[in-house]
Amino acid sequence: MAAIRFDRVTKSFGSLKVLDQVSFEVPRGNAFCVLGRSGTGKSVLIKQLVGLIKPDSGHIFVEGEEITRLPARDLSRVRKRIGFLFQYSALFDSISVGENVAFPLRRHTGFSVGEIRDKVDEKLKRVGLAGTYDKMPSEISGGMRKRVGLARALALGPPILLADEPSSGLDPVTSGEIDDLLLDLKHNEGTTMVIVTHNILSARRIGNELALLHQGRILARGPAAELEASEHELVREFMRSQGVL
Q1: How many degrees, rounded to 5, is the angle at CA 51 between CA 45 and CA 56?
Q2: CATH of domain 31-50+80-240
Q3: Cα–Cα nearest to 45, from 73, 81, 5, 77
Q4: What mean pLDDT value characterizes the chain?
Q5: Any idea where the domains of the chain sit in the sequence?
Q6: N or C terminus: which one in the chain shows less Cβ crowding within 10 Å?
Q7: Phi (first) and psi of residue 178, to 5 degrees
Q8: For the residues 63-88, what does the mean pLDDT come to?
Q9: Interstrand relation of 31-35 and 65-66 (parallel, antiparallel or unpaired)
Q10: Strands across the sheet with 209-214, in order?
Q11: Of residues 83, 37, 44, 12, the one with CA closest to residue 197
Q12: Cα gap 117→143, rounded to integer Å
């Protein structure tokens, strides 16, 4: 059974059709990287996976469960199985690094204060930020903020991770470090991932399958080598662009 499945999903905003009959599957433990120019619907696609945006038509399945028409209570249950790494980390600036990571644990579990502290310390260590619990987001670099965002996304131990532009705004070295963390999650924990990115080098490293969104449709999908050898000129040009758009 696929961990994630889109079945003919369509979404419009007014007269603008952002997604048009989009279908794909992501097997358990695989990484699916969604590429495309700005404004092609990549972020809309990923937000639909957690019910932040509802499709106009079509069906979305998470671990076999159709989520597009779920009531709020059931959708909340599904969301606990999905971690979301936001493009700009989306940290709460008024609380510490550790309290940012603790937020989903306090909201969705009955763990004691001590148990939450232990789990937060474990997640921070997992992303290379041991000893940063009491630091404020304003005191750390952009790359560290991204790691904190990843630690928070992993706080509940979700089998699925969604990442919106995980390397956005990062230098090549820091971007590579984030890639390494995502690869480790995929290889050692079997985490299923859907990653929206402009960074083709990262997509090549992480993705089992890449998909190029263009004018609301998936123009091409498959392993990176297949897209690089595509008969479609736009696909080949995009894969040669190295993510510089």
Answers
A1: 65
A2: 3.40.50.300
A3: 5
A4: 91
A5: 31-50+80-240
A6: N
A7: -65, -40
A8: 90
A9: unpaired
A10: 82-85, 160-164, 192-196, 31-35, 209-214, 217-222
A11: 37
A12: 23
